What we know:
mainly alpha
Amino acid sequence: EGVSYIAIGLQLRRLARSAVPLPRRTGIGLGLVVSGFGLLTPAAPVEGLTIASRELRRRGLTQRQATLTLGFGQWFYGRMFVLIAAVDLLVAVAIGDLAALDVTPLIALAPFSAPVRVKGAVICPCGPAPWTN
């Protein structure tokens, strides 16, 4: 779980990097705040996003930049979760924990997710955050 907080923090840092220099420790700390409140508070991740947005604004981002940075961050986190779940499913089938027939519906739906992935690659190409220019 600690590795996921580090990954989320580094991703958040990368999203905000062209607008404001965000130290690595701060990015990881904000990742922990955004994602780590899930077990502690009933309305998570709202509290974490609010705290992280305030910290990003305090460091020089505008309200719009902070909102877009955190919004894209949440979008990437969701995609990361789906990717990890897909790999986990493939491993479970490969080692025999799941019968291949049990995952047939998931395999049948996989092609329908391809347009979403292509659209995501077109909307969010690698590089500096486009809204910070």
